[in-house]
Amino acid sequence: MSNFCPDWIFNLCSGMIATEFISKSTTLPALSQKYTEVISSEYDKIEPALFEEAAEQYILMLNELEVGEESFNYLTGFCCYKINFVNPKTKRNLTGLFSKELKGTASPEYNINNAKKAFKAYIFAMRSKQMELAPPGWTIEKDITIELLKDVAAKDVGIENLFS
């Protein structure tokens, strides 16, 4: 039976990869491989190239907006938003007996176009003051309740992934 990663988790991971890429000295392929390895422990495997392309698209969009050093804040804001909200008016429910947010899907709902749309929608909502950036000091490692994502955020890229 298929167990594909929910769309919002794919978008969140792509944002986490882009954030790590601009804040650490490592490559998109190495980061994408790291996320693929951890996510595939819970869901069907996502090809690292898909994560890499989505993260690259996020970075390219920020480059087109010419936000410069604010790119990190936009990306962490997107990650914070994806964890906490379904949309600007609906809070994401990650706890409780009936939460379905982490449940895998029968077919993949994630793709590059959906990832780009989600990021573009966040930027639009943020720039039109419907959403805010992440609170100062917010980090995924400290503020996420999903152990799988906390683990991948805290995990360093292995030396074997740097040259793949």
Could you list some keywords that capture this structure?
164 residues; mainly alpha; two-stranded antiparallel sheet; 57% helix
Explain how this protein is built:
The protein is mainly alpha-helical. The chain has one domain (7-95, 110-162). It contains 8 helices and 2 strands. The protein has a two-stranded antiparallel ribbon with strand order 1-2. Strand 1 and strand 2 form a beta hairpin. Helix 1 (7-23) crosses helix 3 and helix 2 packs antiparallel against helix 7. The longest helix has 18 residues, at 48-65. It is globular, with a radius of gyration of 15 Å. The protein starts with 6 loop residues before the first helix and ends with a helix. The relative contact order is 0.21. The model has no long low-confidence stretch (mean pLDDT 88).
Share of residues in strands = under 5%
| CA-based shape | globular
Query: Kindly state the mean pLDDT as a whole number?
Result: 88
Q: How many independent structural domains? A: 1
Number of strands: 2
Count of helical stretches? 8
Portion of residues within helices: 55-70%
Order of helices and strands: HHHHEEHHHH
> Distance between termini?
30 Å
User: Which structural category fits the helices and strands?
Assistant: mainly alpha
Structure, briefly:
The protein has one domain (7-95, 110-162).
Outline the fold blueprint.
Layout: H1 7-23, H2 28-39, H3 48-65, H4 71-84, E1 85-87, E2 90-91, H5 112-127, H6 140-143, H7 147-154, H8 159-162
Antiparallel strand pairs: 1-2
